[in-house]
Amino acid sequence: MVNVMKEGITKLSLKHNLAVWDLKAVMGGDSSMIVWVKEQLGSGDYVHFTADGQRLIGKLLGKAIIDLFKEDQ
Where are the alpha helices (H) located in 1-73, listed in sequence order? Predict the structure, then answer.
């Protein structure tokens, strides 16, 4: 269902001129959660993130926002 949701979100973002950050792509694409779990960034349920994973996602999102802001200058 992730791809169906991504398609819908992408369509809405284009319609309303909104930015979208693709966490799945940032993580490494399909099945990347397996690697994140092995690296102890994802939990054993393969859905949630560990505290370290959450911190990494926050840093990556922050960097993406800053980079986008710099692009717009």
Answer: 2-15, 23-27, 32-38, 51-71
